Amino acid sequence: MLALDQKQYEVISQYVKLLKIVEEGFGYINEQYRQEKHDAGDRMLGDILIAFSQFEMANQTLMTAFGEEVLYEIQMFKSIIEIIEELEVNFYHEDWKKDIILSKLIPAFNSWSILMRAKFEPYLLH
Predict the structure, then answer these.
(1) Average pLDDT for residues 103-115, to the nearest whole number?
(2) pTM of the predicted model over 0.85
(3) Could you say which of 24, 68, 93, 96 is the most buried, measured as most Cβ atoms within 10 Å of its Cβ?
(4) All residues at 6 or more sequence positions from 126 whose CB lies less than 8 Å from its CB, including other chains
């Protein structure tokens, strides 16, 4: 296991916290969309999209610190960004937007989040 300096520890700690917050946010969106409360779900989605820009910035730091060890996970994140791009194209078509979020974006994020937490939570236990 790589020895972390304080800055790297803080980045990982904040990253894992953000993963959990986004997971909770997606749970809220899922519930709101299933209840046909699209406006509430869309507001949360806006916050989540901001979080994705934070993930992108942090991914640069992680690549510098961990290199090849996180390459697969960073590439997986790029596939999530592709889903977001598909979402942006279809954002004003409610049915397609809902389908992309519920059947593609949330499952892809949850799978990626599990991998990222499994990789980084052990560093936080030391």
Answers:
(1) 97
(2) yes
(3) 96
(4) 1
